[in-house]
Specification:
Elements lengths: L8 H7 L3 E3 L2 E5 L5 E4 L4 E5 L1 H9 L2 H13 L5 H9 L21 H10 L1 E5 L2 E7 L7 E7 L11 E3 L4 H5 L21 E6 L1 H11 L3 H9 L8 H6 L13 H11 L8 E2 L19 E2 L4 H14 L5 E3 L4 H15 L17 H11 L9 E3 L3
Parallel strand pairs: 8-9, 10-11
Antiparallel strand pairs: 1-2, 2-3, 3-4, 5-6, 6-7, 7-9, 12-13
Bound molecules: iron/sulfur cluster.
Iron/sulfur cluster binds next to helix 11.
C-alpha cells in the first residue's frame, strides 16, 4: 500500500471542523495544536510534526478516513450502502434493523477482511469489496450473480458500464421479459470486476431500482409504508375496483406474488396498519413499502374474479386424475413446467399426461365435462 500518511494536508484541514470516523478522532484547538484519539492512544497539545509522527503509527485509520472523505455524502443512502458493503458501522442506523444482525467490523479487522474481499448479497447480486493493491485505502467492488459465486472470472461476460445492468436485468435466462425487477429470475453469467463505489451503487440501482433508498429509509426509521387498503382506496379508473377484493383474497394475493420465491423485496405493507397479512413478508435486506404496479394490475383481475358467485359442479374423475389436476396447478404455480421431461410420465404435469387428460375429459367446447348442480 502507498503511504497514506504522505499527504496529510486534507486531514489537517478537516481537523478545523473536527474529524470523527471509525476510531480516528482529531481536533485542532484554538492555539493551533491538535488532540488525537485512536483506539490505542490519546494525545493532546500536539504540534503538527508530532501529529504527523503519531499518525504514521495508524496508517489504516488515516487511509480509511481518506477513502470515506472522498466518498463524501454524509447521511446519504449511497454512503450508507457502501459502508454496509464492507460491514463498517452505520452511523445513521436508528432502528434495530435486520441488516445489522452481523457484527460491524472496526478498521483493523475490516482491513484484514478487505484484503481477502468482504462479500455481501443483495437479492441475487453478490458484491465483493476489496482494497486496491498499492492504493491509499481506495476500494473496488466486484459484482456478479450469486449463482456465479464459484465461477472463474474468465468464464463470465465482462461488463464495465453500470448501465449494462439495465440490459442484463431486462430478460431472464430463457429470454423472457421480466416485468418485476426484483423477481428472483435475474440471469447469471456476467461480471463487473472493478467498480468504483459510485459505479457500484448505480449498477445496483439499475438491477433493483429504489432498493438502496428504501433500505436506507428503513435503516433511519423513516420508511413510510402504504398498506393495502390505503393503496387500493386511492386507485381510480380501471383499478378503482381493487378495494373490493376481500380481505382473505389479499392474503392469497400476497402469497401468490410477494413471497421470497416470487419477489426478493421484503414485504412490509400489510392489509392495514393494525391488520397483518398471514403470508411471510420475506427475509431480504431491502423492504417493499407499498403494493407495486404488478400486484395492483393482478388485483384488478382477482377483484373481478372474486365478484363471481360460487357454484357447485359435478364431474367424473378417477382419484389419480384428481391428483393430477393438483400436480398440474402446482407445476404451473412453481414455474416448473419447463423442467418436466417429456419421457417422465410419472409426473402429473408431464405434457403427454396433460394432453391425455384433455383428450379424455374435455368436451367439444374445450372445457372439463361438468354438470352444474343445484345448491341446497
Ligand atoms: S408488492 Fe409484492 S411483488 Fe410487488 S415489489 Fe412488493 S413484495 Fe414484490
Amino acid at each position: 500500500m502507498a503511504d497514506p500518511t504522505s499527504d496529510l494536508e486534507p486531514l489537517f484541514a478537516a481537523a478545523d471542523e473536527g474529524v470523527a470516523l471509525d476510531g480516528l478522532v482529531l481536533e485542532r484547538a484554538a492555539d493551533g495544536t491538535y488532540a488525537l484519539e485512536t483506539p490505542t492512544a490519546d494525545h493532546s497539545a500536539l504540534a503538527e510534526d508530532e501529529l504527523r509522527s503519531a499518525l504514521e503509527s495508524v496508517p489504516a485509520l488515516v487511509s480509511n478516513w481518506r477513502y470515506w472523505d472522498a466518498i463524501g455524502g454524509e447521511g446519504t443512502a449511497r454512503r450508507a450502502f457502501l459502508r454496509w458493503c464492507e460491514r463498517a458501522p452505520l452511523a445513521d442506523a436508528t432502528t434495530a434493523n435486520r441488516t445489522l444482525e452481523d457484527d460491524p467490523l472496526e478498521v483493523p479487522e475490516r482491513y484484514d477482511a478487505l484484503d481477502e474481499g468482504i462479500v455481501r448479497e443483495w437479492g441475487q447480486l453478490r458484491i465483493t469489496a476489496r482494497l486496491v493493491d498499492g492504493g491509499e485505502g481506495e476500494r473496488r467492488y466486484e459484482l456478479r450473480h450469486v449463482d456465479d459465486a464459484d465461477r472463474a472470472r474468465e468464464e463470465l461476460e465482462p461488463c464495465e458500464d453500470p448501465r449494462d445492468a439495465r440490459e442484463l436485468s431486462t430478460d431472464d435466462g430463457d429470454g423472457r421479459y421480466r416485468p418485476l425487477k426484483t423477481a428472483p429470475t435475474l440471469r447469471s453469467g456476467w461480471i463487473f470486476s472493478e467498480l468504483s463505489g459510485r459505479a457500484l451503487v448505480d449498477a445496483v440501482e439499475f438491477f433493483y431500482p429504489a432498493t438502496i433508498a428504501n433500505w436506507h429509509r428503513e435503516l433511519r426509521g423513516e420508511l413510510d409504508v402504504d398498506h393495502w387498503l390505503e393503496t387500493a382506496e386511492r386507485q381510480t379508473g380501471i383499478y378503482d375496483v381493487i378495494d373490493e377484493l376481500p380481505r382473505e383474497a389479499v392474503g392469497w394475493m400476497a402469497e401468490a406474488c410477494c413471497v421470497d420465491s416470487q419477489c426478493l423485496r421484503r414485504r412490509e405493507w400489510q392489509y392495514d396498519e393494525d391488520d397483518d397479512l398471514e403470508p411471510p413478508g420475506g427475509d431480504g435486506p431491502f423492504p417493499c413499502r407499498e403494493p407495486c404496479s404488478l400486484v395492483v394490475a393482478a388485483a384488478r383481475k382477482w377483484a373481478i374474479l372474486e365478484s363471481e358467485e360460487e357454484r357447485t359442479y359435478e364431474l367424473e374423475l378417477t382419484t389419480s386424475e384428481l391428483n393430477q389436476l393438483a400436480e398440474l396447478i402446482d407445476a404451473v404455480a412453481d414455474g416448473r413446467t419447463g423442467e418436466i421431461r417429456e419421457a417422465d410420465v410419472n409426473d402429473g404435469a408431464n405434457r403427454y399426461r396433460a394432453r391425455y387428460l384433455r383428450a379424455k375429459r374435455f368436451d367439444e367446447n374445450g372445457g372439463l365435462e361438468a354438470t352444474e348442480r343445484e345448491r341446497n
